[in-house]
């Protein structure tokens, strides 16, 4: 292979976006990241969620994907939805063939499935929502009052 072919292949791999399932030992913020590399996904997760370097582990789930460009006015601009790394949204996952088991509206924890494997969002958001419900006198995810 000549140098020009090698550079071209390298350039393509840097532009390729992959879907990673990123976890930490405490499981508090586990979720999907769209990134160019495993390291980029881990660094983005650690930085964005407040973990120390080396705490996140990214598992490649799908390669060479493109996220959905959302027309949401908040909290991000269009530039956010077209740049990487970023957190995957349910719309991205549905585009990639995931089945949404729970969209987070009922129990605050997003749960999706792909090829027989179930992925559940980290526990931190679930714990925060449980504390809010308890403080408000709401006992269960279904809104039942204590």
Write a structural description.
With 146 residues, the chain is α+β, with helices and mostly antiparallel strands. The chain has one domain (17-136). Helix content is 34%, strand content 23%. It has 5 helices and 7 strands; from the N terminus they run H-E-E-H-E-H-E-H-E-E-E-H. The strands form 2 sheets. It has a 4-stranded antiparallel sheet, with helices on one face. A 3-stranded antiparallel sheet has the order 5-6-7. The longest helix is centred in the C-terminal third of the chain and has 14 residues, at 123-136. It starts with a helix and ends in a 10-residue tail after the last helix. The model is unreliable at 1-12 and 141-146 (pLDDT under 50).
Task: Tell me briefly what this model is.
The protein has 5 helices and 7 strands. With 146 residues, the chain is α+β, with helices and mostly antiparallel strands. Strands 3-1-2-4 form a 4-stranded antiparallel β-sheet, with helices on one face. Strands 5-6-7 form a 3-stranded antiparallel β-sheet.
Give the fraction of residues assigned to helices.
25-40%
Tell me what portion of residues adopts beta-strand conformation: 15-25%
Overall domain count: 1
Low-confidence stretches: 1-12, 141-146
Structural class: alpha+beta
Give, in spatial order, the strands making up the sheet with the most strands: 3-1-2-4
Q: So what's the overall shape? A: globular
N-to-C series of helices and strands = HEEHEHEHEEEH
What's the end-to-end separation, in Å?
70 Å
State Rg: 18 Å
The strand count comes to 7
Count of helices? 5
Name the average pLDDT.
79
């Amino acid at each position: 292979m000549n140098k020009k072919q090698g550079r071209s292949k390298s350039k393509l791999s840097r532009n390729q976006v992959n879907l990673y399932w990123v976890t930490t030992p405490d499981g508090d913020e586990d979720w999907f990241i769209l990134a160019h590399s495993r390291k980029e996904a881990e660094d983005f997760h650690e930085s964005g969620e407040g973990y120390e370097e080396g705490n996140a582990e990214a598992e490649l789930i799908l390669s060479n994907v493109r996220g959905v460009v959302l027309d949401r006015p908040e909290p991000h601009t269009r530039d956010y939805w077209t740049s990487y790394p970023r957190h995957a949204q349910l719309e991205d996952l549905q585009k990639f063939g995931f089945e949404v088991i729970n969209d987070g509206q009922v129990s605050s924890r997003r749960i999706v499935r792909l090829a027989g494997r179930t992925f559940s969002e980290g526990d931190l958001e679930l714990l925060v929502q449980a504390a809010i419900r308890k403080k408000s006198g709401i006992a269960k995810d279904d809104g039942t009052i204590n």
